[in-house]
Amino acid sequence: MVAFTAPKGVPDQVPPRSAAFLAVRDAMVDQLRLAGYGALELPVFEDTALFARGVGETTDVVSKEMFTFTDRGGRSVTLRPEGTVGAVRAVLEAGLERGALPVKLWYDGPMFRYEHPQSGRQRQFTQVGAEALGTDDPALDAELVALADAAYRALGLTETVLHLNSLGDPQDRADYSARLRAWLEERVGGLDEETDRRIRLNPLRVLDDKRPEVRERTAGAPLLSDALSPEARSHHDAVRSHLDDAGVAYVDDPRLVRGLDYYRRTTFEFIHPLLGAQSTIGAGGRYDGLSEAIGGPPLPGVGWALGVDRTLLALEAEQVAPPAAAGCQVFFVPLGARAKATSFRLVTQLRRLGTAADLAYGDRGMKGAMKAADRSGAAYAVVLGDRDLEAGTVPVKDLRSGEQSAVPLDTLVNHVRELLR
Fold first, then answer.
1. Of 292, 317, 342, which residue is a domain's last?
2. Cα–Cα distance between 19 and 354 in angstroms, integer?
3. How far apart are CA 377 and CA 253, in angstroms?
4. What is the DSSP letter of 83?
5. Domains in the chain: how many in total?
6. What is the pLDDT of residue 68?
7. Which residue among 8, 51, 130, 333 is least crowded, i.e. fewest CB within 10 A of its CB?
8. Is residue 73 part of a domain?
């Protein structure tokens, strides 16, 4: 029994599953690099007020789920619950909005929310995020949606469903919220204290409630899509048209709302039906007023966050193996002290040339060392003994076919690289 364990809701990622975890993350990032998104590294914690103003004080994220503490200087800081607000802050602080637009950025890393841990919902979870700021062009909304769709396709997912909606402009939401509040008070009010609070402060939150009893009572609620301004409707139609042109399938979902206050117009979620209650594996939308909310100039933006943990669960649910990470290619089996010194030198030389190489440590015998070679996944094994050094030739074994050949020691590195090529 170990003396310490990981905190509740904070999972370790260890081999071999960690290789799949990295493959998922890299597949998401690869799509963004192809589209010209630059890397952004964000702080793990920020001023608490940044999230309160940016995400919204009435949201569940801010009011219930943040890890907030006072530092030694008496300042209130919070582990980041999401990445968009910090990304916009970083853009403004660096003055990137004064350069070429749009500013297109990606980031990845852990986020933190005080949740009740369960499959697909942890207190520390990893996301890849993408943000594009500086224009309200609906083609940019469609680009980001298409990039997320491409990432899921590249990983081999086939059952993911894209849900799409528009939340309209602020006045659209204000008018709709008043109408929805009156409707909810009559039909849903009194269900429980939390629902009553949401009806009073932000009635759209009630539509985001996944509990069956709430979904049933709100089935006939008025829809925001019926209250969109002509400008918001035109923007949404353009996004849909671009997605049609790109061959990205989607489901129009007029009930779709997001749990963060900064969203407006385009909003979307990628749903995986095999994951049960925690079925959203990626989501995002447009947030044109966020910059002003945190004290910046007008700066339209759109972005998303894809959950690495949940995407890996989706792959496992579909029984799809993520792209294999590059592993060991050639494994050295040294038999003797001189052979180990020579093997170490050759392994180092191969690595410097970009070839993945390893060797058996611990002075194992031939049987144990060859088992290590098989477990490494290498294509070739080099069995090197003191007699081979004296003869100047080395046995190279193809671990897939079992064929073996003798190779001059002074040409071994080039020979192995040619075999792998």
1. 317
2. 19
3. 46
4. S
5. 2
6. 93
7. 8
8. yes
